[in-house]
Amino acid sequence: MKNRFKNILLKIQSTFSLLNVRNIRLFFFSLKNESIANTVSKVIGVFKRNRSIAYDELTSCNDSHPVKAYYSIDCCCFENDHILILGWIHSIHYKINKLKIDHTKDYEVLWIDRPELQKSKIFQVENASPPGFVIKLNKDLMTGSDLELTFHSDKHSWAVNLNIDDLAGSNEDNILKHFVKQFSRENFSTKQNCSSISTPLISLVTPVYNTDKNVLDQTIKSVLNQNYENWEWCIYDDGSSSIETIKTLDQLKSRDSRINIERGTNLGMVNAYNKVISMANGDWIAVLDHDDTLSVNALCSIAESIDQKPGVKFLYSDEDLINTDGYFELPTKKGAFSVKKILRYNYINHLMVIKKELGDSLDWFKPEFKGAQDYDLILRIMDQISNEEIFYIDQVLYHWRQVDSSINYDYSRKDYVLESGRKSLQKYYDRNGKKGLVIRAKKLGYYDFIPDP
Questions:
Q1: How far apart are CA 433 and CA 126, in angstroms?
Q2: CB neighbours of 160 closer than 8 A, spacing ≥ 6?
Q3: Residue 126 has pLDDT above 70, yes or no
Q4: Non-local CB neighbours of 65 within 8 Å, separated by 6+ positions
Q5: 3-state class (DSSP) for residue 139
Q6: Cβ distance 86 to 74 under 8 Å?
Q7: What is the DSSP string of 384-421?
Q8: Structure confidence at residue 163 as a pLDDT band (50, 70, 90)
Q9: What are the boundaries of each domain within the chain?
């Protein structure tokens, strides 16, 4: 078993130098073990974005002069009865080559090179290659308290608390099946039969601002190709100056009577969303960003879920990313609604569908939480409805595009988003009478609540 494990990991390591996505795709389909294939595919996003790598900072333990290290947990998957965790850690002045996991001896660690990360600005030593690692853990460790990892050099140590639930979503192996469908695009060529369900009017809402024509065309195509007919698409042009954007929207007006387009002055992101929602006539609001796309069955699945769950007021689905080469990757399997998880980070994101009367009662998005306005809205919705009125759709219905300006590309580029998220969560605790302070966690996009003594 140990030799087989090492052979598989050597296969993973050998792919890091393959920067051509087509080669990686062929490698993906050549692997018989889907969980390992999923691992390889997930790291595509890491080394294809090596110009701007997401990472966390660590400070050495028990030192009078603390030493910084940089690390990342890239992905997590399953291999038979074990979990595989792939990541890297780097200190500018010290070589880190030991790892200890507290309270268990049931693990293996393989150290590997990660040369594809050298271009990142944090690796300031010439030819420095941050040590990558693959940890193999018993699957039983997925439940219970966080894992306590300690990385060591000859002189220093760095501690990390690792929550497997955060990495593995709902901890179900069928995320691999989702990924195979997304990567091969087979999921989008087969349409569901929507004839037997009721037909609530679903309003898609999209503010547009100087969107690249090719990107906007893909968004348009994904809406017009929906396997559900009772929808409207409300678009607010937030003062675009791009001739291509304006021309594309003008042409779109005549393509389908269900599309309603208004052009106005630049209101800014949050106010533009509120404006476009005010144009909607449907009972349900589905938020679609101007550079993202829907799966062909998205609206049909929403209508079907509304049928299945009478009284539901808030729905959300799984999502994946469209990388810069146009491939689908990194599907996120979110699982049933979890108060504990949403109070740590906004894991819901897209696709988010809200009963219009509920959103209207809350005045929708608040400008003071720009960048995290959706997180604030979710937290305020939690104050108004029960968990039974929230429904999780176990399908990837939304494809979130990675571009340089996207939050999904690199959280660290937009500090205001992280701060808006912190403020919105602080507001939640304050209005619910819980005294304490919300701080940013070590992991980007996550938050910790420190109760008052």
A1: 52
A2: 58, 71, 148, 149, 150, 151, 442
A3: no
A4: none
A5: helix
A6: yes
A7: HS-GGGEEEEEEEEEEEEP-TT-TTT-GGG-HHHHHHH
A8: low
A9: 2-168, 194-440
Amino acid letter at 53?
I
Average pLDDT over residues 384-401: 92
The answer to whether 337 and 388 have CB atoms below 8 angstroms apart is no
- Give the orientation angle of helix 415-431 with respect to helix 373-384, to 10 degrees: 20
Distance CA 315, CA 121 (A): 40
Do 398 and 410 touch, CB atoms closer than 8 A?
no
Residue matched to tokens 């929230």: 390
Least confident stretch, 95-104, 165-174, 268-277, 344-353: 165-174
CA distance 186 to 295: 11
Count of other CB atoms within 10 angstroms of residue 453: 5
Tokens describing residue 141: 């460790």
162: nearest Cα among 115, 107, 116: 107
* CB atoms inside a 10 Å sphere around CB 100: 14
Phi first, then psi: what are they for 95, rounded to 5°? -85, 120
> pLDDT tens digit string along 143-157?
555 678 899 988 899
| 271: enclosing H helix or E strand | helix 269-278
Residue pair 242/210 in contact (Cβ under 8 Å)? The answer is yes
pLDDT at 232 over 80: yes
The closest of 391, 369, 388 to 379, measured between CA atoms, is 369
In this predicted model, what pLDDT tens digit does every residue of 287-315 receive, in sequence order?
Answer: 999 989 998 889 999 999 999 899 999 99
Given pLDDT bands bounded at 50, 70 and 90, which one contains residue 243? very high
What is the per-residue pLDDT across 267-283, written as a single tens digit (0 to 9) for each? 999 999 999 999 999 99
**Token pair for 9:** 């990991």
Max CA distance (Å), the chain:
69
Q: Are 157 and 151 in contact (CB under 8 A)?
A: yes
Q: Specify the amino acid at residue 208.
A: V
Q: How confident is the model at residue 141 (pLDDT cuts 50, 70, 90)?
A: low
SS3 label, residue 98: strand
Q: Residue type for 114, please?
A: R
Token duo for residue 88: 């890297």
Q: How many CB atoms lie within 10 A of CB 438?
A: 20
Span of 22-26, 73-77, 202-206, 318-322 with lowest mean pLDDT: 22-26
CATH superfamily of 194-440: Spore Coat Polysaccharide Biosynthesis Protein SpsA; Chain A (3.90.550.10)
